[in-house]
Amino acid sequence: xxxxTIADILSEIGTILEIKGENPxxxxxxxxxxxxxxxxxxxxxxxxxxxxxxxxPGIGEAIAEKITTLHQTxxxxxxxxxxxSLPPGLLTMMEIPGVGPKKVKALxxxxxxxxxxxxxxxxxxxxxxxxxGFGQKTCEKILIGIRNREAYSKRHLWPIAAEVALPILEGLxxxxxxxxxxxxxxxxxxxxxxxxxxxxxxxxxxAPVMDWFTSLPDILEVTAKGDTKSSVRFSSGLQADLRVVPxxxxxxxxxxxxGSKDHNVAMRHRALQHxxxxxxxxxxxxxxNVTAPKAxxxxxxxxxxxxxYIPPELREGLGEIEAAEANKLPxxxxxADLRGAFHNHTxxxxxxxxxxxxxxxxxxxxxxxxxxxxxxxxxFQANGLTEARLAEQVESIRKLNAEKRLKIRLFAGSEVxxxxxxxLDFDDSVLARLDYVVASVHNRSTPDADAMTARIIRALxxxxxxxxxxxxxxxxxxxxxxxxxxxxxxxxxIANKKIIELNATPLRLDMDWRLWRRAAExxxxxxxxxxxxxxxxxxxxxxxxxxxxxxxxxxxxILNCRTLAEVLKYFGKK
Length: 574
Ligand code: DGT
Ligand code: CA
Ligand code: CA
Ligand code: ZN
Description:
This protein is α/β, with parallel strands linked by helices.
């Protein structure tokens, strides 16, 4: 068993012990052990073989033993027994934001609540509100959480859907008789969340393709199986449609099932203006004497309507056809255009990579520069840096740059907290010593959208702030954005010549792509920020690039598409 899975089990043990009211020291020991394991440098197997695990800070002898057993056998009797001693619904109750082990314990012991439906009922009939430590407000929050959870469970984050789709696509392409296979729908358009997967195959004989698809492992239910269309539901809850069409229809069907509906409606409207009728089957001229155009690619379909190719990301029915007609489609940013990234964490705060590890990982991505922006002291839950620790980090960064051992240039920054009154967690004199500053809201307890907007704008007016972090604090399919007037924040950013980040963490993608086109036209500069908390998370930028493309962004709109020399100049100007 790998170390991340083991860390998850340790922290689950800590949580179960807490629900059971065990000694707090013991509870903390398991959570500390999990964190230590997550941030462990070096190979777990080697540490175990050297009997050195118990010497790792945060891992005591008893926990070292449990880690060893899990690593070697993938099983731990202590954990199984412990988990079986609780109703399984208690742990799922904690998937609702604001419901932690202490609340679960109280709900279970006082009211016998052991599942989400029971919790919902007790919130509605007032018995939870009467409980000590809960109250009406908490109850309302829990009910909103339960409602959101239902809505959220119908959609899936893009990378999770893509991970399921990729091997299926490869499998389809490897089947005998399959000429083309593609995924369509929201996955192909790179929407941030996906409702269901849509596969499209060109083959003369659909039957073997249908049989293969409906007998995939992990299928919970085959919801439909016809001659040319099947639908399945996987155990993860994700559903998938497959359609098999004759080769000559493939690109018409691919275009149709890529959507979006709004894009399709506009395309059909345009076809009619050209005396053509467009459908998933093909293009038929209204005039019987004109021959029907064929399509050997999607580009042929657009060409038949007098248009250049429109990339799937843009097909949202938001003016892409008009832009194509006027030859004004954007020169969309690609992953290869990125030359670095600015919002990244190290072990100094809540990341798992050292400065050098992060730098090396950035080098291996072919980048020219990397910015480090660890949390500031108010984010104590993320081990935010004090002024003294920040000064040390800045010195280490300057030293690494001076030594020239690394090919990459490091920038010293901070992800400084925007405090409740809009002032920053560090004094200006501290910020002045940094290359750049990302300012973010982490403590969300601001009364309303007006107050939050004022709070953020005040931060943007600070001369040392370079960019705003995650504008709304949303976590897709988990936590709603805090109320804020996004347009006013954008106005303030433009007026103060500040950047807004496009946080590329798949859960965030914040600021939302729907706001970028207009904002960039009005002069807002973007930075695609991975917010990496581990070396491999630098790759999150790919999700940011996809969102940027959906927002019509070009390299010229994005700070980290600039060369090192240009970035130095940009930072130097302030
Ligand atoms: P999703 O699955 O909710 O994330 O979103 P999509 O876009 O993948 O939607 P889905 O799976 O219902 O259908 C795939 C595509 O098929 C959709 O983007 C456009 C096309 N399509 C489906 N139903 C209709 C329809 O009633 N009218 C039109 N014009 N197109 C449709
Ligand atoms: Ca779909
Ligand atoms: Ca579908
Ligand atoms: Zn943050």
